[in-house]
């Protein structure tokens, strides 16, 4: 009887395990294998070489690119956390009606009804040299000439990231806040805690799983992104994803695969560090 139960359990898990194997393990294993191959301008040559990793790790360009990618990820994470926590806090604790909470939450999802590319492109006429932002500021007399840093700069890249990925921070934090027992807040107030003390000592600790999940979403997406950097920086900024895309456009697949392996290890290290700090299983 116990053997039957064990086999039934295995059969139930088998479809998910098969999908996991075919669409995650096999592709990653293929990338790792290809990262050791040699290549020329026309073909990939099966081999076992460390040349691809040596060229990447010994190149100052690689280190600067990774530094800039991590910088984009950290700035975006900080801004999305600030905005996401504020929005989630307002909707969860200051909007009493469940219907209004649902309406406001759905409003936050409206930007996701369109493509990321379309939402990025929409910033170009707004931030351009003769765009709406510069024109308005000049008409108000606040500036005498257009602000050059608004478009095709690190500022525009971070702005696009925050616009695109803030919702990934709002949703898990809001979910954590809605699970907080409101009697804990009343007990804190009865004990004489101020609003700030309640936020720091009660709400924030209970929201850590949601913050961790949102942080993983935002950081991993930004670390692997290349479209936003290419479009919003005008080619003036770089990222690891863009470096891999350029390598693949030149048919340098082993070099791109080696870069992908290094990026994967870095992202896994960041995720592991977050999971060490916060027990995400409480949120699942």
Features:
single chain, 284 residues, mainly alpha, two-stranded antiparallel sheet, 2 strands, 1% strand, flat
Please explain how this structure is put together.
This protein is an all-alpha fold and 284 residues long. The protein contains 14 helices and two strands, in the order H-E-E-H-H-H-H-H-H-H-H-H-H-H-H-H. It has a two-stranded antiparallel ribbon. A hairpin with a 4-residue loop joins strand 1 and strand 2. Helix 1 crosses helix 14 and helix 8 packs across helix 12. The longest helix is centred in the first third of the chain and has 35 residues. It is flat and about 70 Å long. It starts with a helix and ends in a 7-residue tail after the last helix.
In short:
The protein has 14 helices and two strands, in the order H-E-E-H-H-H-H-H-H-H-H-H-H-H-H-H. The protein is mostly helical and 284 residues long.
